[in-house]
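Lab manual, section 2.4: Encoding a predicted structure.

Procedure: take the sequence of the chain (273 residues), apply the prediction step described in section 2.3, and record the output as structure tokens. A sample record is shown.
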Amino acid sequence: MLSHLPVRRRLTRAATVSVLAAGLAVATAGSAGAIVNGTDATQRYAFMASVPVSAPGLPDGVCGASLIDARWVLTAAHCVDPNLVAPAGTVRIGSGERKTGGTVRGIGATFTHPGYRQGGGAGPNVDDVALIRLDRPVGERPIRIADRPGVPGTPTRLLGFGTVVDTGELGGLRFPDRLQQLDTRRAAGSECDPGYAGPTRLCTVSLTPGAMACFGDSGGPQIQRGRGGRWELVGVTSGPGVGGHVPCSSGPGLYSSAPAYADWIRATIRANG
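Recorded output:
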């Protein structure tokens, strides 16, 4: 979702879309209902990971990620893009709290999809996935990548520590202490702008009016129920599903399809494990 990093205190709506794409966040105290208009997590998600990042004007940001192997997490490419952010060098895994709990590991290396390209606000990010290799394995249980996304209408869920207030003002952003969740559904490609959704990008809409992932949620998981009712990873939070100057909460959202990148993920882990 990010084309460039704004450094002004007041953001235009176009710059707001860019920051959302980068998954940046300014940490503030307090927890409220959200992703925007989601709720506090109702269960423990051992695979949920958070990646602290910083950038000009945003010194205490965060991106989401998903543990997919004992030593690997999957996130958005723009969350490790050195032109946009500076990762703090650690990943927190398996905690329902943004700043405490779970297991903390160092970032051993990052691997960005070779086709990654920023959308620049005029279109979607392309191949917006990256892998982080942890410096040591963790004991939390990884999430399985789904064999395929569900058909349009399939229930999904978003997880993240992003802002609970949808605003273009950096000072107005509010980030929860507790992990947030939002029930959504896989949308038809036509529910996003033309050219946004496709084989590698999933259009997603909320079941709650005025709710969607926003600043700080980028890279985090979109999950669906798989075999035996267990959660499977289907998407990686990437950006808005429409162009122009629109609030995050107006939706729809756009998610890199984890199943579409399964071969690249497996090959990268095998070559660098």
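Check your result against the sample. The first helix runs from residue 13 to 22.
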